[in-house]
Amino acid sequence: MDVNDTKAPTFVEDVSHEENKVLRIYFQLTSYLNGIMAWVAGIALISMIALIVFNAIKRLFSDPFSGTVEVVGWLAAITATFSLGYAQLHKAHVYIDLLFEKFPEMLQKIVYTIMVAGSVIFFTLVVYYLFQHGLLMKRNGTLSETLQFLFYPFILLCSFGFVGLVLSLIKDLIDCWR
């Protein structure tokens, strides 16, 4: 083997390889986290359906479960927020591109970047303020009206659901410019 045949990697190639490794780990982590949250959202949805059906059947024989509305509301919040990141990753949302597709490719990237960056900022603020609200509810010892249950954990979980969306949006932004 000749010394000239071996090619030593340059610094640029090393950075590129390391960058790709970091991005691959980030993408896998985002996909894995949002996949788990989608499963939790599915379980919450099934639980919500089961509770409503159980309550309807129970109503035929006795008084209904008094906390149904509260529990269904909490489960609905978990279902909605935990499914956002997964929906963003799989483009399972409504996207109207009638006018957008007519733009030149570079303008499309710029407009998309502005929209996604604005979304990242907005939903990061949602995470922050929801988390702060949850901590305030914990500090105040606020209880739900019917069940007298501490519900700040559901607020904190909803905040975590938006984290999955923010991670997915950042992934989309990176994909746009790769």
Structural write-up:
With 178 residues, the chain is mainly alpha-helical. It has one domain. It has four helices and no strands. It has helices spanning 11-61, 68-89, 105-140, 152-177.
Main β-sheet description: none
- The count of β-strands is 0
Radius of gyration: 23 Å
- Measure the end-to-end span: 37 Å
Please work out how many helical segments DSSP would assign.
Answer: 4
Oligomer: single chain
Domain module tally:
1
Low-confidence stretches: 1-15
Percent helix: over 70%
Helix/strand/pairing category:
mainly alpha
What are the salient characteristics of this protein?
178 residues; single chain; 0% strand; elongated
Set down the secondary structure blueprint:
Elements: H1 11-61, H2 68-89, H3 105-140, H4 152-177
Helix pairs in contact: 1-2, 1-4, 2-4, 3-4
State the gist of this model.
With 178 residues, this protein is mainly α. It has helices at residues 11-61, 68-89, 105-140, 152-177.
